[in-house]
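Hey, why these numbers?
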Amino acid sequence: MLSVYFPSLLQASGALGGLIVIYCTYSYIHWQVTVGASRRQLIKKHGCLAPKKLPSIDPFLHIDIFLQSFRDFKSHSILENYKKRFDDLNCSTYRTGVFRTPIILTIDPENIKSILATDFQSYSIGDDRKRAMGALLGSGIFTTDGAEWQHSRDMLRPNFVRSQIGDVELFEKHVSRLIQAIPRDGSTVDLAPLFFKFTLDVASEFLFGVSTDSLLPDGGPSAKETEAFIEAFVY
């Protein structure tokens, strides 16, 4: 039996190995011709240097970095530890990855200005963000690119005219409710939920003309729905 099947097994393994080599070679050449060429052109144009690499115990999938980020998120220290990584590397931009997905993090003002303003059209929010936020926010300014994003921006623009932003009475009402919601007995209070409700109340009235009024003592007319939204948003 071995004399019959063993050569066939070797042939199948060899064929599979050959296909893997061909696929890897094709992927490498395709990347070099498309993404690689674009990056080399960008590097040449702007005189960029390769960002520092965040050290990782697992250099392939970076599972240790993923687990550390998850622990930081659970302990509410993710921003503090992100800042620590920049300090430890002594840089304002570094690269890492999660499950073979390359990630570049930056706090460099010039990079941020380029991404958000001067070269905005060259950047995309990415498919991951669309998938993650699309179910909650639908197709809007936070989940679209290009013409769709421009359409959403044009619809929101009238809400940000000077007369609307300068409506101090609108803000004063909600600031007063925020202050009233803070205990006066000197006890320790978590301000985060109150500030979230304040932002929600102001934004809903600012953008839609009707506030959620979640800072009212009874939680407003839609208290149940508002609490469900807050819980889903910060989950």
In short: The CA atoms of residues 32 and 38 lie 9 Å apart.
